[in-house]
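User: Fold this; C-alpha cells only.

Assistant: Input:
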Amino acid sequence: MARWRNALALVFDVDGVIIDSNTLHTETWGEYLRRFGRELPEGFALRIFGRHNREIVRDLLGPGLSDAAIEHHGADKEALYRERARPVLRQRLVAGVAEFIERHAGWPMAVASNAEPANVAFVLEHAGLRQFFRAVLDGSQVRRPKPDPEIYLRTAQMLGVAPAQCVVFEDSHSGVAAARAAGARIVGVQTTHAELPGADLLIRDFLAPELEALIPELRNC
C-alpha cells in the first residue's frame, strides 16, 4: 500500500464514475442527430468516452462549424440528455457511489469532469451529493480538457493539496491519462472499459471490497 501513502483527497469524474450514463449519452446523440436526418456512425459509442463536447460535435456534424454553432449543438443535445436522464438518474448511479461518498464525507472531495457545467450540476443536485464536494470543476473551467492534466492540477490547488495526494476515480482512458500526468493516484472504475492502463487499482463499482479495504490504509498513512 506504499503507493497510496500520504493521500489526502478524493476526486471524482462524473460520467462513468458517479452516473453510469454512457448508454444514455449514446442514445441521446442518436436521437439528436436524427433531427438532421443523420445516424450515428458505427463504433461511435467507443469514441465519446472522456471527450469534450466540442470534439464530439465536430466529429458528428463537421469540422467546418463555427464556434457558436458548436456551442449551440452541444447545449441542445445536453438539454435533451438531461430531459431523458431526469426520471432514471437515481437508478443510473454507479452502484454504491452515493453511500461511499456519504460514508467518507470527512475527506476533502472534489469533482473534475470534462462534462458541460449544466450536466455536472444536474447530476450532483439530483443525486443529492453536491454538499459533499469542496470543489467542482467542469469542462468550461479549463482551457485544455482531459487528457491534459490541467483539470486535475487545478482541482488539487483548490483543495489545498499536492496532486500526488489525490486519489482520482476515473473510467476513461483520457481521464486516466490526465490524472497520471498530474501525478495523482488512480482508481479505475470499470463501467466503460475492462482495462484502464495506468490505473493503480481497478474496481467494478463502489461496492468492491478492495476499495473499502483501501480506506483504512489511506487514513493510516
